[in-house]
Amino acid sequence: MATTGTLKQLSNTATISPQRPLSSTAQLTAPSIQRFKGMAELLTPPASLDDLDVNQGMVVDILLRLTYNEGEVSATHAEEVVKLPYRIIDDLLAWMQQEHMLEVAKAVGSLGRRGYVYSLTDGGRNRAKEAFERTQYVGPTPVPLEKYTKSVLAQATIEKLTRPQVQQALNHLILPKDFDRKIGPAVNAGSSLFLYGPPGNGKTTISEAIAKMLGGGEPIWMPYAITIGGAIIQIYDSLIHKFSTDERGGADNRWGLIQRPGVMVGGELTMEHLDLRYEPVAKFYEAPLQLKANGGMFLIDDFGRQQISPTQLLNRWIVPLETRIDFLRLNSGMTFQIPFKQLLVFSTNLDPDDLVDGAFLRRIQIKVGVFGPDEKMFYQIFENQAQTLGFPMPVDRDSFLYFLNEWYRKTGKPLQSVHPRDILKAVKVLCEYAGEPLHMTPGLIEEACQGYFVKAKSGQIL
Q: Which class would CATH give 147-369?
């Protein structure tokens, strides 16, 4: 009959099958790690149970829930899900077997302990049910909040972009001369930016270009989940975080190497999105949007059209903008702080005077107006869009002049950067529907405009 013992005793006495040596700090030399001072220490995988930086019982609970959900689990599969080194997983499974929580259901091949497939004993199922009462979380082992905080601060120090780099990042857009001088300083400061101006002139497109510029486009490290006060907070969001293909270099698998996040929200934003969201059934937390955006950009698009008032939203951001620290609260009442290290971008087509007061605007470092193009820029945009959509070059000038004269000069409608793209797309659809080669004429431009613009009772074209 197997003897029982504590996890620490097992870690000192268990027999471990031969395997590749675990990474040490000195071995973590990949550029993705060395780029940021101090990250090698944070990303070094634990070599043994004694080196584990979270409560060992939390990992045991995850393994119990995983085995309960799947019926049987191998050490290799557990390693993939929990994302701890095999040596630690094997030690924990061996201890759980000694404690009669698990039993070996079968052995696959001649892999030794790696080939063992475990299932729960009756006692193990009872322990698993108790683990489900605490939380239903099954996934990568969380990283302590302290480590996450250090990682954000380490990766917040980035190489400043040069003017040519910013110009290169914006060169696919037709913008006024020296526009990069307004955007570049905000990106390098990594603090806050207020974009304002009429709709349809590229504020969102500019913001997307900014997101790709951050940190020179280099990826950052982010844990899948963090833990504080016994609670688990899931950060990774597949809709926001995209994995980088850069070399990981043996880093702790609990950390993902991701492209700098770009979180974009519009009118759907509520105050709940900015606080920890506790799922009462799953019993763990989902990180707020600003935590998911750390190291990247958080764009509040259509600012002023949210389900919460601008005043409420601005009051929520005043302290983080001033201190670069945000405060969150667990259901237990425990309050803790997290770094607020992201470029916060507000974009609106409403009058800033109707949205914000001077106290808030002072906390936003840079304000940039994005207005409609002049006729020369409008033609350049029209030409670029025509080429992108596959129209024969050069552009038919009669068609462009008809568009400009009939729908802008005569009506007084302001030029908007988005109109050439939308009208030319409509012309393309008309050609395809008629089975004709792609081309443009004043008649096709007129037909596309008739279907795109709306004439109000006042005679104004919308």
A: alpha beta
Alpha carbons 166 and 184: distance in angstroms, whole number: 6
CATH of domain 375-452: 1.10.8
Angstrom distance (rounded) from CA 208 to CA 212: 7
Beta strand spans in 273-428 (E): 277-279, 284-286, 297-300, 325-329, 335-339, 343-348, 366-369
Among 192, 365, 185, 366, smallest CA distance to 290 is for 192
Look at 460 and 240; give whichever has higher pLDDT. 240
Check: CB of residue 423 under 8 Å from CB of residue 445.
yes
Q: Minimal CA–CA distance to 96: which of 52, 49, 44?
A: 49
* Helix, strand, coil percent values for the chain (each to nearest 5): 45, 15, 40
- Residue 389 in this model has a pLDDT that exceeds 60: yes
Q: Which segment of 3-17, 166-180, 272-286 scores lowest on mean pLDDT?
A: 3-17
Structure tokens that stand for 197 in this block? 């101006």
**Whether the predicted pLDDT of 382 surpasses 80:** yes
CA–CA distance from 383 to each of 125, 203, 242, 332, 439 (Å)? Answer: 67, 20, 33, 59, 13
Q: Is the pLDDT of residue 158 over 80?
A: no
438: Cα separation from own chain's centroid? 39
Bridge partners of 263, per DSSP, are: 298
Q: What is the per-residue pLDDT for 94?
A: 94
Strand 297-300 relative to strand 343-348, pairing: parallel
What is the C-alpha separation between 43 and 255, in angstroms, rounded? Answer: 7
Q: Which three-class secondary structure state does DSSP give residue 344?
A: strand
Percent of the chain whose pLDDT exceeds 70: 91
CA dihedral for 457, 460, 461, 462, sign (positive or negative): negative
Task: Give the whole-angstrom CA distance, residue 151 versus residue 130.
Answer: 33
CB atoms within 10 A of CB 335: 10
Boundaries of every domain in the chain = 7-11+26-140, 147-369, 375-452
Nearest CA among 193, 172, 197, 173 for reference residue 184? 193
Interatomic CA distance for residues 252 and 40, integer angstroms: 10
Whole-angstrom distance, CA of residue 455 vs CA of residue 200: 18
The CATH class for the domain spanning 7-11+26-140 reads: mainly alpha
Cα 12–chain centre separation: 40
How much is the average pLDDT of 347-367? 76
**Distance between CA atoms of residues 175 and 181, nearest Å:** 12
